């Protein structure tokens, strides 16, 4: 075997060992990544792993093919090395991407764990509060039962009071009905009394008008009699003046005594007649005044009686 072939063989063996070691490491890292991120990577991570496995299988096939063709040239080995490096680079990129996703998922898991712990604490607090609420609910239930019993007693008392009030209402309604009947009867009596009072007032007004007319007539008669009396007094004064004149004439004319005596006798008779007429007129005036005063007194008595009857009614 030549030196070039031995170097090529050594390179192939080294490449095979390196490829095998990298393949083993990649499978181990893939298993670890699958174990840590299987629950959260999803469909995209599975696709990347499948693609990586296909690349590895392709490289293995190329390695087997390179082992079978040991006599291939050095350029093909370099090409395989370049492809292997590229696959390793892609694998490293994928691993880096997986690590980033794992870090993100771990961060999310930590957040979820914190939220879970917080939720657990909240759950414990809620359970504690529920226990307190149940305890309070039990106490409130007992209190409510006591209140229900008290309310039932109050209800029975109110029921009895309601029945009593209903009976009282019925009694009051009966009394109200009786009082309404009595009130209607009183109203009828009062109405009849009012009608009687109106009739009396109307009669009184009629009598008052008649009395007023009679009073006016009597006042007119009295005024006429007073004028007649004044005229008689005037005539009497004139007669007295004439008598004085006649007396003077008698004293002056003694010779005419007989004539004067006769005239005096006649004048005396006329005077007596006039005095009698004046006396009669005075008596008539007094009687008219007495009748007028009596009528006025009777009218005032009727008014007073009406006022008293109105006040007492």
Structure description:
The chain is mostly helical. It has 2 domains: 3-125; 197-312, Helix Hairpins (Orthogonal Bundle). It contains 4 helices and no strands. It has helices spanning 3-37, 43-68, 74-252, 257-312. Helix 1 (3-37) runs parallel beside helix 3 and helix 3 runs antiparallel to helix 4 (257-312). The N and C termini lie far apart (166 Å). Residues 1-5, 26-31 and 33-42 have low confidence and may be disordered.
Q: How many DSSP H or I helices?
A: 4
Low-pLDDT segments, ≥5 res:
1-5, 26-31, 33-42
Quaternary structure annotation: single chain
User: How do the helices and strands follow one another from N- to C-terminus?
Assistant: HHHH
The count of strands amounts to 0
């Amino acid at each position: 075997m030549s030196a070039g072939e031995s170097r090529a063989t050594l390179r192939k063996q080294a490449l095979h060992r390196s490829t095998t070691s990298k393949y083993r490491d990649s499978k181990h890292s893939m298993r670890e990544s699958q174990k840590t991120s299987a629950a959260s990577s999803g469909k995209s991570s599975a696709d990347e792993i499948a693609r990586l496995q296909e690349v590895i299988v392709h490289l293995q096939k190329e390695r087997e093919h390179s082992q079978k063709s040991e006599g291939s040239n050095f350029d093909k080995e370099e090409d395989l090395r370049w492809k292997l490096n590229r696959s390793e680079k892609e694998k490293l990129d994928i691993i880096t991407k997986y690590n980033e996703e794992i870090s993100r998922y771990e961060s999310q898991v930590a957040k979820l764990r914190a939220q879970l712990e917080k939720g657990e604490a909240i759950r414990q607090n809620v359970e504690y509060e529920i226990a307190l609420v149940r305890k309070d609910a039990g106490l409130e239930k007992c209190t409510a039962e006591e209140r229900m019993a008290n309310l039932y007693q109050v209800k029975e008392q109110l029921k009895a009071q309601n029945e009593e009030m209903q009976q009282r209402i019925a009694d009051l309604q009966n009394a109200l009905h009786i009082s309404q009947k009595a009130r209607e009867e009183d109203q009828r009596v009062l109405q009849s009394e009012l009608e009687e009072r109106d009739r009396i007032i109307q009669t009184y007004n009629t009598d008052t008008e008649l009395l007023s007319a009679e009073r006016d007539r009597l006042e007119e008669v009295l005024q006429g009699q007073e004028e007649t009396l004044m005229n008689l007094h005037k005539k009497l004064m004139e007669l007295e003046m004439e008598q004085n004149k006649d007396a003077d004439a008698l004293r002056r004319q003694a010779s005419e005594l007989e004539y004067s005596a006769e005239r005096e006798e006649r004048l005396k008779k006329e005077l007596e007649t006039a005095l009698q007429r004046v006396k009669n007129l005075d008596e008539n005036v007094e009687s008219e005044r007495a009748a007028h005063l009596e009528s006025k007194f009777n009218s005032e008595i009727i008014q007073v009686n009406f006022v008293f009857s109105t006040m007492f009614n």
